[in-house]
Amino acid sequence: MESEYLLEEPAKTYNIKHRAFEFSKDVLSFVLSTKFEKIVYSIFDQLVRSATSIGANLVEAKAGATKRDFLNFYIIALKSANETKYWLCLIRDSIQSDKNKVADLLQEADELSKIIASIIISVKQG
Description:
Number of helices: 4
Mean pLDDT: 90
Radius of gyration: 15 Å
Strand content: under 5%
Number of strands: 0
Low-confidence stretches: none
Number of domains: 1
Shape: elongated
């Protein structure tokens, strides 16, 4: 039995966990296809860590025992999304890479952070 976030989805899904999973795959694909010097390895490593942390924390939130647990995992996911935007901007502005792909990833990271922030606000108000 496959977990819900591992199922194949259409190109643009509205389930936040699926969308974060697809984003993680896109970031991994980007990093694997980018040639970079050893000196900037840590930047790409941080990008992978923060991008994959988004979805991992959203999945963990589902297992949260309380509303507070749920919110804490979503807040961590939001922080990871914002960190991911930082690394993508740094790559965009200082490292030879596919600028169009970085722009697409940056847009998706921004959309994910806005959706997650909206869910956090909604849960806090509810």
